[in-house]
């Protein structure tokens, strides 16, 4: 028989108050019960607006037309309680959704508010804790959990209500790659084993594509593709669309190399594809470019044998840490959560002081530098919200220039230029806290760049950024480097570091265990490496980027045209 429709959306349009452009423009699609649908598109294309309209309590204010049906009835016909239990919603930031102080209480909270009996609540909560593997941290305080654990708790609390549909808006944007992978595996398990319908938006397509039944791609408030993952790959390639770059490595390699083999989605399928391809074609590893590191002994940042702990009785977080970063270099620190990367950054920014060892900037101990932030250091913290102090993004940017000797016109011109550069020109009148994670990240970056620092410290700058803006972000960094700005970046984004870093270092257990140019650095690693390297290592051990495999297979790689930028 025909499966029932979980959601049916007909001719849906939506416009925010005070805006002329539609946020959604004639959206039509259906989601069948038990389907796993991935919704993707560049930041600001309308994904979040669409998802929020699927649950009335979350729907934004504005002008709406068209129809939304849930289980064959208009969504508006269901009361709040029916929607609360029937439609589960998981947001980007777990901290905005968790309401209680203890793990077990968080799991029970939704059921309590729906008025379930204690016996029923106990049964469901214990079942959820087992399904999600939460037993070992069941009695912990929520504050003691890692980001990944908080997001799993968030998901489990929503699942305790046994929703028919689970809607998730970029649920992994705050998580490191390992926690993100685990989270998406759990989603797959919920969909496959409980039959729950899943509608997910995600920038990390590498992990999400293979588990989706269908992919819907949005672009400036319209749907431009709605097909199986493999078909969507073909559509994006045919349109030469910005989103093509976001596709999983195996798909991109398959698309750029002339072959008649089926399209691989996962690293494992990619390996099989490469084996098959190499039977009839010669692979040429000499076409893989080499790293070229210029001799550079102009050290700008130096950490010498630093030790640090947050309190006397707590263990050391940074242990015998040594680092030197040269002028004009993009240096990336990678490694798991809790290894000391962010703490090491805090020593350089003067936020924390090592109890042993020293931190030098341009050869001077930072304890002797009077004003670290006056044109010397710019810091983008892990939580960009902490950067904002004003009611609008515009006022926040102007605030940076308040003590500069410039006319109002010159200030406005600078703010305009930086807004265009960071793609936030349409967000200037918004309150910084109303922006999405990726938008906040870009606005905070704009604010730091206005200070024109000689040294940039960036903590996970690419989180929540879509693949297209990541490329623009790389352009911004390359422009800064060309102006001799030194950039030290902590990142979970292995693919980004592999493509753009001058050097990478692995932080493990409080110190740096290896430093090298990206190719040398990633090709020897089994786990902490790119999907291209995992896919190709049996045949092309030197391949680190999708482009490397494409070149070695005789395909061609188009060099990206750098857009002309407004430079003062």
List its salient traits.
20 strands; alpha/beta; 568 residues; single chain; 6-stranded mixed beta sheet
State the gist of this model:
This protein is an alpha/beta fold and 568 residues long. The chain has 19 helices and 20 strands.
Q: Could you say which overall geometry the principal axes of the C-alpha atoms support?
A: globular
Computed structural class: alpha/beta
Q: What is the radius of gyration computed over CA atoms, rounded to a whole number of angstroms?
A: 25 Å
Low-confidence stretches: none
N/C terminus separation:
65 Å
Strand segment tally: 20
Approximately what portion of the residues adopt beta-strand conformation?
Answer: 15-25%
Number of helices: 19
The helicity comes to: 25-40%
Average pLDDT: 90
Q: What topology, given as strand order, has the largest sheet?
A: 6-7-8-3-9-10
Largest sheet: 6 strands, mixed
Explain the overall architecture.
This protein is of the alpha/beta class and 568 residues long. 34% of the residues lie in helices and 21% in strands. The protein has 19 helices and 20 strands. The chain starts with a strand and ends in a 16-residue tail after the last helix. The mean pLDDT is 90.
